[in-house]
Amino acid sequence: MPLWRFFDYINDDGDDVIEKWYEAQDDDAIRVQFDATIFILAATEDWTHRRVKSFKVLTGRHAGLCELRFTVEMERKKRRFRPLGIWRKDSRDFVLLGSCEKSGRILIPSNAFELALHYKAEFEGGGGRIRERT
């Protein structure tokens, strides 16, 4: 039985924001690595332990968000992905609010963090809904 549960955020427009990103990926390897990262984290007791490299609590202007982290090597190039979400207080629930690819200081899409913060505020204000990711 998993220690953690993952949820997709469905915004007020009815879009499952993480599933939309997931389906838009141009290579199956990205989806497989995303699924593997979630599978491993679901069974990991303490995400904040220094050995856990696939999770990070964000600070500064992105405080309140967390990112999952994974890399896919394709054609001798490493592509870094950052699914974004919130760790629900006093639970082992993680709500996915979107994702981006990070290349140096460039984000694809460029507004991924701002959009995730918008969805976080929307969700915490009673908007949208969540669906357990299975």
Instruction: State the total count of DSSP E strands.
Output: 10
Low-confidence stretches: none
| Residue share in β-strands | 25-35%
User: In sequence order, what are the helices and strands, one letter per element?
Assistant: EHHEEEEEEEEHE
Notable traits:
134 residues; alpha+beta; six-stranded mixed beta sheet; four-stranded antiparallel beta sheet; 3 helices; 27% helix
Sequence-ordered SSE layout with sheet pairings:
Blueprint: E1 5-10, H1 17-24, H2 28-42, E2 55-57, E3 66-68, E4 70-74, E5 77-81, E6 84-87, E7 93-98, E8 101-103, E9 106-108, H3 112-124, E10 129-132
Parallel strand pairs: 1-7
Antiparallel strand pairs: 1-10, 2-3, 3-6, 4-5, 5-8, 6-7, 8-9
Quick overview of this protein structure:
This protein is α+β, with helices and mostly antiparallel strands and 134 residues long.
How would you describe the overall organization of this protein?
Helices cover 27% and strands 31% of the residues. The longest helix is centred in the N-terminal third of the chain and has 15 residues, at 28-42. A hairpin with an 8-residue loop joins strand 2 and strand 3 (66-68). It has helices at residues 17-24, 28-42, 112-124, and strands spanning 5-10, 55-57, 66-68, 70-74, 77-81, 84-87, 93-98, 101-103, 106-108, 129-132. By secondary structure, it is an alpha+beta fold. The mean pLDDT is 95. It starts with a strand and ends with a strand. It has one domain (5-132). The chain is globular. The protein has a six-stranded mixed β-sheet with strand order 2-3-6-7-1-10.
